[in-house]
Amino acid sequence: MTDTGITISPVQVDPELDGDHERMSHIVLEGFKPEKGDFVSAGPSVVEGMVNGTAVKALCGKIWVPGRNPKRYPICPTCKEIAEGRGWKVPAG
């Protein structure tokens, strides 16, 4: 997780869903910290999803239960575009 509260996580493949979107790492906004104030949660964290089987939501709208190594997959171009549009640093991927 970075200072902005985003985490990159891959999706688990579901043969019922479109294939390409399933083979990407997605960016999850886990929360944010305003200039003055405490961390504000935006939903379940990727770690919580992996441990408890809780679904998370990516910036692009994808909802899934995370469970794979995100470094093995390219970053979702929609998630990346949204994050960069908000001025967030996105790791190369």
Structure report:
The structure is a single chain. The chain has 93 residues and is α+β, with helices and mostly antiparallel strands. It has one domain. The strands form 3 sheets. The protein has a two-stranded antiparallel sheet with strand order 1-2. A two-stranded antiparallel sheet has the order 3-4. Strand 5 and strand 6 form a beta hairpin. It is globular, with a radius of gyration of 13 Å. About 9% of the residues have low confidence.
What's the layout of helices and strands?
Elements: E1 6-10, H1 19-22, E2 25-29, E3 31-32, E4 40-41, H2 46-52, E5 56-57, E6 63-64, H3 77-85
Antiparallel strand pairs: 1-2, 3-4, 5-6
Compressed to H and E, one letter per element, the order equals: EHEEEHEEH
Mean pLDDT, as a whole number? 77
Instruction: Estimate the strand proportion.
Output: 15-25%
Helix-strand makeup class: alpha+beta
Helix content: 10-25%
Radius of gyration (CA) equals 13 Å
- How many individual helices? 3
Number of domains: 1
N-to-C span? 15 Å
Shape: globular
The strands making up the biggest β-sheet line up spatially as: 1-2
The count of β-strands is 6
